[in-house]
């Protein structure tokens, strides 16, 4: 059994992989240190044969994970790097190593799952949208601020808006907001989903759409087309790649 770890911008996600299946999924806000929830779960779980990780949280975080795994199980973390020879994906980037490994793994998984051209949306801290053809050619993508980043940017740079801000409440119904907070929330959602819809419309209506990430549910609700929500898409990509190693 292997422990697979997806160390993202905001969250740490993990699952155990055995016989081609994932189980024991977990997730926690990442913070500056390995979350206590993750440490507790890993201590109580099975001792993995391998620990395989996709890390976009930086070298310092990778060192922490290395040290924890070494101290707990005397294992070395195996960090995945983009390899155009694996996964059946031809990256659009001239320097494939500059494509985030999480984006690449999501594309690998989506390409295996869908027989058609597919758009992959990761609605996290940043929202990424990438398109991969049925033949495995990565057409490229877009990166825009996610819902939280978009709202934070507005709040941090506008004292006038902050002065009119109400405490958090329930989700506002209707098309438009009825107070400052709900107006910001609606505006951020429409800005994000509008950018996604505009991009998808360039490719017509026959393309499959797969979405993952912490804000996937909210973004899906704001889109006018059907999406498949696969929350562990990056972990699925790790499982697929590590099975080829």
Identify the CATH architecture of the largest domain. Answer: 2-Layer Sandwich
Sheet with most strands: strand arrangement: 3-2-1-4-5
What is the name of the CATH topology of the largest domain?
A: Nucleotidyltransferase, domain 5
Shape: globular
Key words describing this protein structure:
245 residues; alpha/beta; Nucleotidyltransferase, domain 5; five-stranded mixed β-sheet; 8 helices; 38% helix
What does the model show?
By secondary structure, the chain is of the alpha/beta class. It is 38% helix and 24% strand. The protein has helices at 36-44, 59-73, 101-113, 147-157, 159-163, 180-201, 216-222, 233-242, and strands spanning 2-7, 11-18, 21-29, 50-55, 77-79, 118-123, 126-132, 138-145, 208-212, 228-229. The protein starts with a strand and ends with a helix.
How would you summarize what this structure contains?
The protein has helices at residues 36-44, 59-73, 101-113, 147-157, 159-163, 180-201, 216-222, 233-242, and strands spanning 2-7, 11-18, 21-29, 50-55, 77-79, 118-123, 126-132, 138-145, 208-212, 228-229. With 245 residues, it is of the alpha/beta class.
Give the SSE map.
Blueprint: E1 2-7, E2 11-18, E3 21-29, H1 36-44, E4 50-55, H2 59-73, E5 77-79, H3 101-113, E6 118-123, E7 126-132, E8 138-145, H4 147-157, H5 159-163, H6 180-201, E9 208-212, H7 216-222, E10 228-229, H8 233-242
Parallel strand pairs: 1-4, 4-5, 6-9, 9-10
Antiparallel strand pairs: 1-2, 2-3, 6-7, 7-8
């Amino acid at each position: 059994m292997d422990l697979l770890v997806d160390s993202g911008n905001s969250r740490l996600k993990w699952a155990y992989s055995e016989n081609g299946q994932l189980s024991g999924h977990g997730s926690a806000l990442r913070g500056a240190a390995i979350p206590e929830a993750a440490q507790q779960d890993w201590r109580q779980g099975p001792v993995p044969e391998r620990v395989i990780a996709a890390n976009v949280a930086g070298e310092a975080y990778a060192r922490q994970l290395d040290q924890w795994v070494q101290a707990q199980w005397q294992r070395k973390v195996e960090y995945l790097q983009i390899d155009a020879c694996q996964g059946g994906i031809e990256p659009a980037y001239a320097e494939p190593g500059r494509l985030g490994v999480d984006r690449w793994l999501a594309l690998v998984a989506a390409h295996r799952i869908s027989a058609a051209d597919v758009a992959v949306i990761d609605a996290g801290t940043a929202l990424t949208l990438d398109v991969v053809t049925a033949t495995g050619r990565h057409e490229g993508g877009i990166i825009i601020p996610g819902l939280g980043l978009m709202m934070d940017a507005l709040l941090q740079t506008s004292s006038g808006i902050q002065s009119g801000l109400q405490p958090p409440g329930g989700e506002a119904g209707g098309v438009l907001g009825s107070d400052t907070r709900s107006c910001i929330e609606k505006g951020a959602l429409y800005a994000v989903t509008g950018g996604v819809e505009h991009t998808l419309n360039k490719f017509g209506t026959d393309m499959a759409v797969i979405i993952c990430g912490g804000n996937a549910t909210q973004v899906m609700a704001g889109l006018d087309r059907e999406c498949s929500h696969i929350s562990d898409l990056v972990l699925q990509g790790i499982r697929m790649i590590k099975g080829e190693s």
